[in-house]
Amino acid sequence: MSEFFERNFQVIEQRWPAVAQRLLLENAGELQADLVEGLGSTLSINGIQLTSRHDRLAEADLQAGSLPPDATAVHVYGTGLGDLQNRLLEQAEVEHLYVHILNGSVFALVLQLLDQSSWLADPRVEMLYAGDLAELQLPFFALPAELVLADDFNAKIRDRLISETHLAFNNREFDPRAPEIIERLQSTFGLVQRDRDVAELFGTLNGREVFVIATGPSLEQHFERLRGLNSQAERPLLICVDTAYRPLIIQGIRPDIVVSIDQRISARHLPPEDTGAIALVYLPMADPSVIEAWQGRRYAGYSASPVYHQMRQQLPRGELYVGGSVIHPAVDLAVRMGAEQVTLFGADFAFPHDKTHAGWGDGDLGPQLDASRHWVLDGHGQRVKTQLNFRSYLCELERFVAGHPQVRFYNSSRDGAMIVGTAFHPEFVR
Predict the structure, then answer these.
(1) The domain boundary residue, chosen from 116, 148, 165
(2) Is the pLDDT of residue 175 over 80?
(3) What is the pLDDT of residue 20?
(4) Among the residues of 90-154, which ranges form H helices?
(5) How many domains does the chain fold into?
(6) CA dist list (Å): 161 to 76, 181, 283, 328
(7) Which residue intervals define the domain 6-hydroxymethylpterin diphosphokinase MptE-like in the entry (predicted)?
């Protein structure tokens, strides 16, 4: 045990004994740690620099300089080398500084190598593991290196941090003033005007169970069971997302409702033949040729996006929740229709079994398996490949589930991402 560690640990043990005990269990010896030098120096963990190697303090000053002037309580995710914490504590307006550990082993290693006692002993500081809380706290700073190095326990908060950080960038495609958006909404205006209001479906279930079907690879495990529902007089209502429709039809499974929101969905995904008994729920950004060709009942709705603000004023329609993916309005529709129990199929948010989607080839729906550089924990507690936007969609679904405690949510597979707030369905989970 180094002199630094003893001094640092003594402060932690006195102030946060539970954190101290957890830090003793961390295995810092498994980390590949190297000193990296430039104009200055820093620590590299598993090939990731914790800070700048040229000027750590200037980097911390740059970060601290973006603190909102009225922020008295600040959250820092990641511990780094302590530079940002020290800089924030130099600002008189900061009354509370919450430090959320994203990788316990990294922090334990830093405690051995550098004196951190100054910021640790400051009475304004509180410390906890990021994963101890279900949601991220605002305003926050997130140390970029530790968003990469975050360990399994803290991965859910890491995903929320990255999703929040990317929010403005992701929303750039949905500018209501963009010519292509204006053109699309003009082309679907007449359809929305003629078609039914999605709100007509709200409250119509009378407690009937709903299966919401997405296109994750685990869906393929359930084709046979879902096909068997065709012969049942009383069966759950089947709501599927647009990309799941064709794989289901090929397997002889006919959903009751298809939900579509994406302007890139074409007749290839939603072939209109023999759809007379299947309802289509859509948002006006959908392709007008796909909507018009649909033979069954059609229901239009909106999301809360400002894209629909003007059309909503002219043509009032029901609203569905959208958090980036079509899975969100599909689940919200089930809840608004009155489902007391919702079971998710193919809601993987990941690439289990080295596949991207059920019923589609690698890259057919966009992402290719070889391009996946990220991970989530699956229902077995193991890391499984994914991509960044899938992790954001997962975060938003978990938030939706947490906001509807009156509904029982089940997941039909352990192979995809663990979805907080859901239980594994005893009939479908192997």
Answers:
(1) 165
(2) no
(3) 97
(4) 104-113, 117-121, 144-149
(5) 2
(6) 11, 29, 28, 20
(7) 196-353
**215 lies in the same domain as 338:** yes
The domain of 117 spans 3-165
pLDDT at 214: 98
pLDDT at 171 > cutoff 80: no
Residues 160 and 280 grouped into a single domain: no
Residue 276 scores a pLDDT above 60: yes
Q: Are 302 and 295 in contact (CB under 8 A)?
A: no
> Which of 130, 165, 200 finishes a domain?
165
Q: What is the pLDDT of residue 212?
A: 98
Instruction: Give the separation between CA 146 and CA 44, rounded to whole angstroms.
Output: 11
Say if residues 212 and 343 touch (Cβ distance below 8 Å).
yes
Whether 36 is in a domain gets the answer yes
Q: Which helix (H) or strand (E) holds 327?
A: helix 327-337
pLDDT of 346 > 80? The answer is yes
pTM of the predicted model as reported, rounded to 2 decimal places: 0.91
